[in-house]
Amino acid sequence: MRRTAKIISVAVLAAAAAACAPSTAGNAPSTATAKALPGPSLDASFDLEALVAAAKKEGSLLVYDSSGDIEEVAKAFTAKYGIAMEGVKSDTPQTAEKMLREHAADNVTIDAAMYEDGGVLVGQLAPQGVTQTWIPSDLKDQIPAENQNPLLALSKATVFAYNTKLSPGGCPVKNIWDLTEPEWAGKLVMQDPLGKPTVLSFFTQLDAHGNQALEQAFQAKYGKPLKTEEKSAAYEWVKRLAGNRPVLTGSDEDISGAVGAPNATDKKIGFMSISKFRNNEDKGYHQSTCEGMAPFTGFSYPKYVAIASKSKHPNAAKLYVHFIMTEEGVKHEIGEGGISGNSTVKPLVTPAGLSDWQGQLFHTDPKGLLGDLQNRQNISDFWRVNKS
């Protein structure tokens, strides 16, 4: 039931987006949009102490996030400001659906959200006035211009990981095309892309600016150029991956358990969030990034912070945005690895096997977020057709 709900949510959002965006057929430019993305707002005379005082008068705050780390952020926020903050873990499609319905009903309970689905944010929620971007004036110069609208709170990563106990010599997969070979059939464990917008975005971004790297990796593995009847190398790789019987789950925790648990006996590769590397210490797991995998070991994805336009606690929501854009707030989200949207906040941890964040990962292009949304239905249908 849960997996079905996720699939329905993605389809509903994609259909709604299609209604308010130009045709997704062909190569529609990713910068085209029926409604312009509203600019971010700043307070002309920003006073943090005054904001804290106003937020305290409002009394409470509710923030949704796809990560359970939001609960630790909430504890830290409440301890610092004395304002009761509740952090709720919710899958991104469900959060978007709830915010849309609350906005339409003028009954808003979610004050702010940490949002991984940049496509829906810039293509639907922000243009329709459901959310707004607010930038703390005192931190504006610390946030690169390209990350201000929508406001990038942090970047996380999903990587190919392996069991270090079962493969002490290193990751048994050296090339991303290895995962399409019969020897790895049924041995890749990943979240179902139809319920995971970041994975769908990875696929569409690969098609937008990753084809050359995929073609070079193919040449390196097989000693010949890639020939395909599909529209691109990215679509060919997705087709082969889908047809190689990947094991689909509903959570990264399930992936981590299947790959790195102490009692695991079968070598599997997990495509999972680096946040699950915490299980090495917490649960005695044996897992690490597939370091050196060509052409990349995974992908980074943005997590944005947005305020509900009709929030009943707007000052508390602004204070939360300020908090998460500082090391004191974001450290709870990047404690197992990640990069803050504030350029002055340095990485806190180097995830196992991921020593070079910039060089080892495929990176989401923020200019392609709307294109991700426009092409989502196409790649979703393509996955369904080819999934064995």
TrEMBL record:
Keywords: Signal
Keyword Signal: yes
Nucleotidyltransferase listed as a keyword: no
Superkingdom of origin organism: Bacteria
Protein name: ABC transporter substrate-binding protein
Pfam family, one: SBP_bac_8
SUPFAM superfamilies per the UniProt record, alphabetical: Periplasmic binding protein-like II
Signal sequence bounds: 1-25
Organism, scientific name: Nonomuraea bangladeshensis
Coiled-coil ranges per UniProt: none
